[in-house]
Amino acid sequence: MGLKAKRKITLACNDCQERNYQTVKNQQVHRERLEMSKFCPKCRTHTLHKETK
Question: What is the pTM of this model?
């Protein structure tokens, strides 16, 4: 069996390490970790969110 094409991931804030968002990414197309600018409710600002394990 190969890798599943889509995988659920969790995004965590770079500043406070709060895990705020969950999304799905295609594992075969995007092998690197996902980074997005999202709103963090704890920091109350837009910050960079990175994929966690």
Answer: 0.81
Residue 48 exposed, middle or buried by CB count within 10 Å (0-12, 13-18, 19+) = middle
In terms of residue numbers, what domain contains 43? 6-51
d(CA 34, CA 13): 12
The β-bridge partners of 46 are: 39
Is 1 a member of any domain?
A: no
pLDDT digits (tens, 9 = 90+) for 20-47: 999 999 988 889 999 999 999 999 999 9
Determine the Cα–Cα distance for residues 48 and 53; give it in Å rounded to an integer: 16
Residue 8, token pair as written in the block: 């659920």
- Residue 48, pLDDT above cutoff 90: yes
Q: What is the number of domains present in the chain?
A: 1
